[in-house]
Amino acid sequence: MTGTATRYLYVVRHGEASPDERGLTEAGRRQATLLGRRLRDVPLAAVHHGPLPRAEQTARLIAAQLTGVPLRVAEAAGDYVPHLPARDELPSDSADFFLGFLDGVTDEERTRGAALARRALDLFTGPVDGAQDRHELVVTHNFLVAWLVREAMHAPKWRWLGLNHGNAALNVIRYAPGRPASLLVSNDTRHLTDALRWTGLPAEPHL
User: Fold this and answer.
1) pLDDT, mean over the chain
2) Helix/strand/coil (H/E/C) assignment for every residue in the chain
3) Contact (Cβ atoms closer than 8 angstroms) between residue 77 and residue 139
4) Phi first, then psi: what are they for 31, rounded to 5°?
5) Surface-to-core class of residue 206, CB atoms within 10 Å of its CB (0-12 exposed, 13-18 middle, 19+ buried)
6) Gap between the Cα atoms of 201 and 204, Å rounded
7) What is the distance between the alpha carbons of residues 41 and 45, in angstroms, rounded to a whole number?
8) In degrees, to the nearest 5, what angle opens at C-alpha 76 toward C-alphas 70 and 131?
9) In the β-sheet with 7-13, what is the strand arrangement from edge to edge?
10) What pTM was estimated for this model as a whole?
């Protein structure tokens, strides 16, 4: 038997996107570059990214600061609704708010999103086979970052809702054999200048 080793999953939201979401703003490009510099000393095995331009561009700018780390596109790292809750899953005082936010999600989007969310958990979470620890980066979107953080905390499926992550903010999750997942770092923007922080987050938490 080869056994299992610890996976360290680095999860980030893409850099600030242009209004049409076809790519990154200048600030978004700078955010991605600074994040890449922060990750230079991490022994990353791969940089996974979603297929949309804002995630792909972020991943390429990060990889440009690294040495010999392959880029891998993954549909499961894309932008989708991972779980559409029923009313009785939600707290009664916020059910109307969350259901209003999700109004307009089609049955097709619901089915596709649930399948991709399961695939993301299969691909990116849990200990890894073998004796060597693995470090991997996933460049994705706010919904999937929230979904993976929720899963690491063993929170109910609906709880991806209301978890907001800044552009190029760093989250690190450890999956050690025989232990529950551990959220080591959350929404960390120490690598960004003051002017580049807080993009992608609602106004109320800005400090």
Assistant:
1) 96
2) CCCEECEEEEEEECCCECCCCCCECHHHHHHHHHHHHHCCCCCEEEEEECCCHHHHHHHHHHHCCCCCCCEEECHHHCCCCCCCCCHHHCCCCCHHHHHHHCCCCCHHHHHHHHHHHHHHHHHHCCCEECCCCEEEEEEECHHHHHHHHHHHCCCCHHHHCCCCCCECCEEEEEECCCCCCEEEEEEECCCCCHHHCCCCCCCCCCC
3) yes
4) -55, -45
5) exposed
6) 8
7) 12
8) 55
9) 71-73, 44-49, 134-140, 7-13, 170-175, 182-188
10) 0.95
Q: 144-163: string of b/e by CB count within 10 Å (b at 16+)?
A: bbbbbbbbbbeeebbbbbeb
pLDDT at 203 over 90: no
Which residue in the block uniquely carries the two structure tokens 């029923």? 86
Q: ∠154-144-86 over CA atoms, to 5°?
A: 65
Tokens of 93: 């005082």
pLDDT digits (tens, 9 = 90+) for 92-113: 999 999 999 999 999 999 999 9
Specify the amino acid at residue 27: A
Q: Which residue carries 């025989």 as its tokens?
A: 178
Identity at 47, one-letter amino acid code: V
- The phi, psi pair for 184, rounded to 5°, reads -85, -35
The token pair at 79 is: 């932008």
Give the bridge partners for 163, in sequence order. none
